[in-house]
TrEMBL record:
It comes from the Bacteria. Residues 247-366 form the Beta-Casp domain. This is Metallo-beta-lactamase family protein. One of its GO terms (molecular function) is hydrolase activity. Keywords: Hydrolase. InterPro entries: Beta_Casp (IPR022712), MBL (IPR050698), Metallo-B-lactamas (IPR001279), RibonucZ/Hydroxyglut_hydro (IPR036866), RMMBL (IPR011108). Residues 13-242 form the Metallo-beta-lactamase domain.
Length: 451
């Protein structure tokens, strides 16, 4: 068989690994490249094989960097099935529709401002094209062999990380290939620990945090302190957050603090239509996480969930202290901007950053102590306190990644380190070799291996 790395090789986005065996082509994940422009431009490149010749896509989870290129694949003639877990299908649909909308808006903006070098800027895909992916989804049960062909089968197992996330064990040509997908943490607040593989001839391991250890800090007590300090000043807390997973985690921590009587009575608001939908998926798929039905209902009750923009306006003009969770997570767009327009100039406000902030984003600038911030073309002085809570990552750190390999009963022929910048992958390579003596390889984009 042949394996070709066509995304998330030497970088953390655009996950795509192509397997070819006896005329069958399988794509593991089909993610969007994100971040700096040279990476985003890769989204416009065709695949090295015709989309119509790919038989199956196996999807590890619903994050955009793992599923966001599916509309292009379908548009270019993919006719096969996309296998994934139930919640992954739901999350992927939510994320693809949102992505289609963002692509449309960006093309529209480029045309309006004429900053595109093309005559007319086209979206990478639109909402309608995103929708055309949905009929291809086939939901699978975890821990059960899914036959793809007489000779090929796949088993999806829980990977923690976000709701529905799986690692995939692919059996073909009498070999077992294990694709980690994104691996969660062993002690995650919401998710169960990832299932460790027992047998593998080849491992394809994500290495996002291959060179890092998560801090020992306690995010819950930091949240408690920041909220109480802000409340005492009569201020509002604004938490920019990704709608999937991170928003549910913050809601859960806030609910626990409230239950324990550690934070005051005031409005707790989640202002994100996508965040509200993600909570519904979370609510309906309880076997995938640790939160009970009763607790889910209580969390739902504690929060004011805003989907209508008029309610956003009302919340913004209500001067009383409150806690608002709103997207986007890196303050690049979304409803959080409407709150910041009014609240960033007030010294009693606290903005709590709870996720990774990529270079060039407004969130990163705020973290780095920007004195003013531009929102919808206008500059605002930053008077609010900008604080950060680390330690909420949904990815395993170096220790977690090493631990994930600890149950292997045989020595794999090779461990491919993917989904990482070069430095973390290389440090992890050395650690894995020292710890287990496994042979590791860090594939380059476009590199092909004969297994
Ligand atoms: Zn992910």
């Amino acid at each position: 068989m042949k394996v070709k790395f066509i995304g998330a090789a030497g970088t953390v986005t655009g996950s795509k690994t192509l397997i070819e065996s006896n005329g069958i082509r399988i794509l593991i994940d089909c993610g969007l490249f994100q971040g700096i422009k040279p990476l985003r431009e890769l989204n416009w490149q065709p695949l090295p094989v015709l989309a119509s010749t790919i038989d199956f896509v196996l999807l590890t989870h619903g994050h955009l960097d793992h599923c966001g290129w599916l509309p292009r694949l379908v548009d270019q003639g993919f006719k096969g099935k996309i296998y994934c877990s139930g919640p992954t299908k739901e999350i992927a649909e939510l994320i693809l529709l949102d992505s289609g909308k963002i692509q449309e808006e960006e093309a529209e903006k480029a045309n309006k401002e004429k900053y595109s070098k093309h005559e007319v800027a086209e979206p990478l895909y639109n909402v309608e094209q995103a929708r055309k992916v949905f009929p291809h989804f086939r939901v699978v049960n975890t821990n059960e062999a899914v036959p793809l062909d007489a000779e090929i089968s796949a088993v999806f197992v829980n990977a923690g990380h976000i709701i529905g996330a799986c690692s995939i064990e692919l059996k073909l040509e009498n070999k077992i290939l294990v694709f980690s997908g994104d691996i969660g943490r062993d002690n995650d607040v919401l998710m169960y620990p990832p299932t460790k593989p027992k047998k593998a001839d080849y491992v394809f391991l994500e290495s996002t945090y291959g060179d890092r250890l998560h801090p020992d800090s306690d995010p819950k007590s930091e949240l408690e302190m920041y909220i109480n300090n802000t409340f005492q000043r009569g201020g509002t807390v604004i938490i920019p957050s990704f709608a999937v997973e991170r928003a549910q985690m913050i809601m859960y921590l806030l609910w626990q603090l409230k239950e324990e009587g550690k934070i005051p009575d005031m409005p707790y608001i989640i202002d994100s239509p996508m965040g509200v939908s993600a909570f519904e998926i979370f609510f309906e798929n309880r076997k995938w996480h640790k939160v009970s039905l009763e607790d889910c209902i209580a969390i739902n009750k504690m929060f004011t969930m805003i989907t209508d923009y008029q309610e956003t306006i009302d919340a913004i003009y209500n001067k009383h202290p409150k806690v608002v969770i709103a997207a986007s997570g890196m303050v690049t767009g979304g409803r959080v901007l409407s709150y910041l327009e009014r609240y960033i100039i007030l010294p009693e406000t606290t903005v709590i950053i709870v996720g990774y902030q990529a270079e060039g984003t407004r969130g990163r600038k705020l973290l780095e102590g920007a004195k003013e911030v531009k929102i919808y073309g206008k500059y605002y002085p930053v008077e609010a306190k900008i604080l950060e809570i680390e330690g909420l990552s949904a990815h395993a750190d170096q220790k977690g990644l090493l631990n994930w390999l600890s149950a292997l009963e045989n020595k794999p022929e090779k461990v491919f380190l993917v989904h990482s910048e070069n430095q973390p992958a290389d440090e992890l390579r050395i650690k894995i070799n020292e710890t287990y003596g496994f042979d590791c390889s860090i594939p380059l984009m476009g590199q092909e291996f004969e297994l």
